[in-house]
Amino acid sequence: MTGFWDAVWFAVSVTVPSILLLLFGVALRRSGQVDAHFCMQASKLVFNYGLPCLLFVNLFGSEIHYGEQILLLLAGAAATLVLFFGAELYAWRFVPAARDKGVFVQGVFRSNLGIMGLAFVLNAYGSEGLAAGAVYTGVITILFNVLAVITLSRSGGSAWQKLRLVGWKIVTNPLIVAIVLALGMQALHIGVPKPLLQTANYVGNISLPLALICAGATFDMRSMLKMSDISLQASIGRLLVAPLVAVATGLAFGLSGVPMGVLYLMSATPVAAASYVMARAMGGNDVAAANITGITTFGAMFSAAAGIVVLRSLGLM
């Protein structure tokens, strides 16, 4: 029983800090101390500066085991593709409306890597896990964007134009730029002055707490009460099916310990907030996309903790 309670405590230590920051954001919004404008501006600050600094500092100062990283990235890409094609098959058979199909598929395969995933990994493994999570975020984010364009293109418009637009967004994505820059400078042994590195560290340290507070402040509980069939089905796929597929894929690739933990934690997150923005921009059912975001944000705290207990008890992470 000691091992079981150790696993429970580990799950609590990983998920509860994120839950408390989300609730703090809810309390600040309800008390009028922050508003939608603040959250919008703070989210831009986090995305453009905070998270890139966090990823750069941790990657630049970490020893990266490329052999393990390649297996982790291959497993992550394989799990994402299994979820994508499985969701496409399900949508073809059970989702009648064209504008619902892409939103459903995206809700199943696209996890929140940059905020919730990195927060879970940091709480679980510290800087060692964060370095692995940073590379994972950069590579899998590219795959997410390409697959999202493919599945949402059925809603109308030129798929080629949308692919070009997303390609440009990928090239100029601050997170991906920071990851490539850190890996390149590390490989070429290019140093960074200590004052600059410390400043970047300060900026990076505010990113995850601020992002979680803003996520809590913008969380709409009413969306939880509007569970359409598509929203509920996609949420089940994201919260239950996606983590199971990730673990099965990780086992097939021989992962265990930190790599398996990173793969699971990155997969056990809510749907990415960007899914709503992309669905709305590309003519998908944006109401269903918002509902999926709300349901999975709430549900992931419990499903992720349950999975952590099981995997930790089995010695897999």
From TrEMBL:
<feature type="transmembrane region" description="Helical">
    <location>
        <begin position="131"/>
        <end position="153"/>
    </location>
</feature>
<dbReference type="Pfam" id="PF03547">
    <property type="entry name" value="Mem_trans"/>
</dbReference>
<feature type="transmembrane region" description="Helical">
    <location>
        <begin position="6"/>
        <end position="26"/>
    </location>
</feature>
<keyword id="KW-1003">Cell membrane</keyword>
<dbReference type="GO" id="GO:0055085">
    <property type="term" value="P:transmembrane transport"/>
</dbReference>
<feature type="transmembrane region" description="Helical">
    <location>
        <begin position="165"/>
        <end position="188"/>
    </location>
</feature>
<feature type="transmembrane region" description="Helical">
    <location>
        <begin position="200"/>
        <end position="219"/>
    </location>
</feature>
<feature type="transmembrane region" description="Helical">
    <location>
        <begin position="287"/>
        <end position="311"/>
    </location>
</feature>
<keyword id="KW-1133">Transmembrane helix</keyword>
<keyword id="KW-0813">Transport</keyword>
<dbReference type="InterPro" id="IPR038770">
    <property type="entry name" value="Na+/solute_symporter_sf"/>
</dbReference>
<protein>
    <submittedName>
        <fullName>AEC family transporter</fullName>
    </submittedName>
</protein>
<feature type="transmembrane region" description="Helical">
    <location>
        <begin position="70"/>
        <end position="91"/>
    </location>
</feature>
<feature type="transmembrane region" description="Helical">
    <location>
        <begin position="103"/>
        <end position="125"/>
    </location>
</feature>
<feature type="transmembrane region" description="Helical">
    <location>
        <begin position="240"/>
        <end position="267"/>
    </location>
</feature>
<keyword id="KW-0472">Membrane</keyword>
<keyword id="KW-0812">Transmembrane</keyword>
<dbReference type="InterPro" id="IPR004776">
    <property type="entry name" value="Mem_transp_PIN-like"/>
</dbReference>
<comment type="similarity">
    <text>Belongs to the auxin efflux carrier (TC 2.A.69) family.</text>
</comment>
<feature type="transmembrane region" description="Helical">
    <location>
        <begin position="46"/>
        <end position="64"/>
    </location>
</feature>
<dbReference type="GO" id="GO:0005886">
    <property type="term" value="C:plasma membrane"/>
</dbReference>
